[in-house]
Design a protein that fits this description.
53% helix; globular; alpha/beta; two-stranded antiparallel ribbon; 8 helices
Amino acid sequence: MAHIYSVLLLEDETPTREYLTAMIDVHPNLTLFHASASCAEARQALKNGVPDVLVADIGLPDGSGIDIVREACEKYENLEAMVITVHGDEENVVQALEAGATGYLLKEQAFDELGSAILSLMAGETAISPKIARFLLKRFMPAKKIQKHCQSRKINQRRLNII
C-alpha cells in the first residue's frame, strides 16, 4: 500500500492556494495538512503538528516563506521543504537552499508537477525547475568548463544549449 504524505501549503494568493490545494486533494498519495495564507498561520499550523512536507511561497504579506522553511527544517529534522515561487533569482534560490529546501519549483512548473515533485522529495530526491537547475549549474561550473566537459563527451550544440 502506498504511503500518504501530509502537506503544509503556504501560499498567500487565494486562487493559487485553492488550485494547489485541489491538486493535493486529488492526488492519491497526498493529503492536505493545512493551507496557510501567511507566515503566522503556517507557524500556528506547525505548533499543532508536523506534516511530511512544507510547500512554501516566498513573498508573503507578513514575511518570507524562506524564514518558515528555515524554522521548520531546523526544528523538524525529517520534514521536507519545497519552495514554489515566481522568483528565480540567485539570491532567493541560494537562500532557500541554505534554509533547508530540497526542492525549488517556479510556479509555472508547480501548477503541473506539484504531486510528482513532492513524491520525489519523499523518495530522497530533489525537485528543481529546469531553469533553476541551469542557473545552479552555471553558478558552480564556469561556462568554459561546461563547454570543455560537453565537447569531451561529444555533446552537440543543441544539447549544450539545454544544459
